Sequence to fold (406 residues):
Amino acid sequence: MYTQKIELCGHIIDSHILPRVLDEIIDNNGDFRVEKFEIGRTKADPSYALLEVQAQSEEELNRLLGRLRDLGATILTAEEVELAPAPRDGVFPDDFYATTNLETFIFSAGRWIKVEGTEMDCGIVFDPEAGRARCVPVNRVKKGELVVLGQKGIRVVPLQRGRQKEIFRFMESAVSSERPKGLLLKEIAQLMRTLKKEGKKILVVAGPAIIHTGAGRYLSQIIEAGYIDYLFAGNALATHDIEGALLGTSLGVSLATGEAVPGGHSHHLRAINLIRRAGGIKEAVKQGLLTRGVMYSCVVNNVDYVLAGSIRDDGPLPDVITDVLEAQEEMRWRAQQVDLVLMLGTMLHSIATGNLLPARVRTVCVDINPAVVTKLVDRGSFQTIGIVSDVEWFLRELAAQLLAGQ
Fold:
């Protein structure tokens, strides 16, 4: 029998960390012995558990410890992190450690070093001379860089829910059309006000449904009120927003009457052509060609935007980044700066953004399809709160909440 002691500390009962650790041990044919267990007596007091974990083989124990570490367990033996050089550009060494989106530390030269730029599905590159560890996607690793291996010398800090009432109960994210959406929306609006006062940043990930449903005007109002710092979208949202601003339609359907316009099928192409002729979205605003809409509001209010392209794009607009890895890099560093993300009516861009976010970033996903939020949670974005709703209702009510009294 192979054994290893682990400890858990924090709100491990309220956040369901302890029961998840015990379930993981049992489900993987392991065993455990509780050596010490202390329960916090007040809302501020943490709880503590010291466990001895047992497995039938060293391989099974190491595999189990890796899973427990991702749940927040600390391995008491502070072993030096294992490293190996990348064999060539864009390739990790075998047995590299695959990151989560949780805060992570590595142990080297007698101290714990925080990993910079935490996100899921990457590796960790360590520079011993600088004492710097950073999260790196596989396509960015360079030959000879030292990459963290295996499970030794790694500590992951879990998200914990305290006993105080919280707007976001990260560990209890549920997806249901029967949740009290109005109450959640009020809490989200209050959080946005608080973040704005504190000078923290908010990102909106937006899909074309915002324009198709006529909700673009509300997103523009929220932008103009100063609540949005970054916008992530694709060619479709920008194109149909500009189509609506220039020609009054979205996908050839009148935004005023909801009826198809004769020849409207070509309107999005005409909108793209006009912007390409102007030299880009910002240039079209400067020239007085584009005078309203979401993209116009972004330009005049200095909202930083990233338009990431796809294989199905028409045109695209000159501002669209067609190299997906370049677009990912542009999204990546911005995602590290934010404290709240609103994902509105777009599955692919929401999942892409979720993959880049640290677990500390509070995330709201609004979609008429509950499967979108479920996919985010299944991928590891368990800090996501889901609101199953039409984005037009959400943005209309959010704008009303935020603009009230201004």
In short: The radius of gyration is 24 Å. Confidence is low (pLDDT under 50) at residues 170-174. Residues 181-197 form the longest helix (17 residues). The longest strand covers residues 2-10.
